[in-house]
Amino acid sequence: MSDVGSSALPAGAVLAQLLGQGAREGTDLVTLRAIAEEAGELGATRALTRLGLADASAAEDVRELRELLRAWRDAKRSALNSLAKAAWGWVTRIVSALLLAGLAVRLGFGDWVK
User: Fold this and answer.
1) Max CA-CA distance within the chain?
2) Residue 66 and residue 74: Cα distance in Å, rounded?
3) Residue 104 CB contacts under 8 Å (≥ 6 apart), including other chains
4) Are residues 49 and 18 in the same domain?
5) Per-residue pLDDT tens for 34-78?
6) What whole-number distance in Å separates Cα of residue 24 and Cα of residue 104?
7) Is 67 left (phi over 0), alpha (psi -120 to 50) or beta?
8) What residues contact 46, with CB distance under 8 A and at least 6 apart?
9) Taking residues 95-112, what's their average pLDDT?
10) Range of the domain at 68
11) In a shared domain, residues 25 and 40
């Protein structure tokens, strides 16, 4: 197998060269591994380019998006917890008021109101 440097050739050229070499000379394990590695790297590069994540600032952008998503989830969880606590507080107050009103009527304090 010839030594092929991936930095000097355009994307896909190394893969094409390795496939050509495999077709000419037959493939050994080293050539198959090199083909698989180049194909994986080329596919990953294409996918990142299509997603707009192939530039140098992409890693920082993804980190910031993850932080923003984490903050959103924390805020949502906090808001739901606060809402649940407030709802239980109101339910408790209403049930207590109804119990006191029922007890007052039962004990005859309802006549005082009339």
Assistant:
1) 107
2) 12
3) 110
4) yes
5) 888 888 999 999 999 999 888 889 989 999 999 999 999 999 999
6) 99
7) alpha
8) 11
9) 86
10) 57-114
11) yes
- Contact yes or no for 15/45 (Cβ under 8 A): no
Which one is predicted more confidently, 95 or 23? 95
Report the alpha-carbon distance of residue 94 to residue 57 in Å, rounded: 55
- Angle between helical axes of 13-25 and 29-50 (0-180°, round to 10): 160
pLDDT value of position 5: 45
Together in a domain, 113 and 80: yes
> Which two tokens mark 11?
């994307």
Look at residue 72 in the predicted model and tell me its pLDDT. 95
Structure-token pair, residue 48: 């990142």
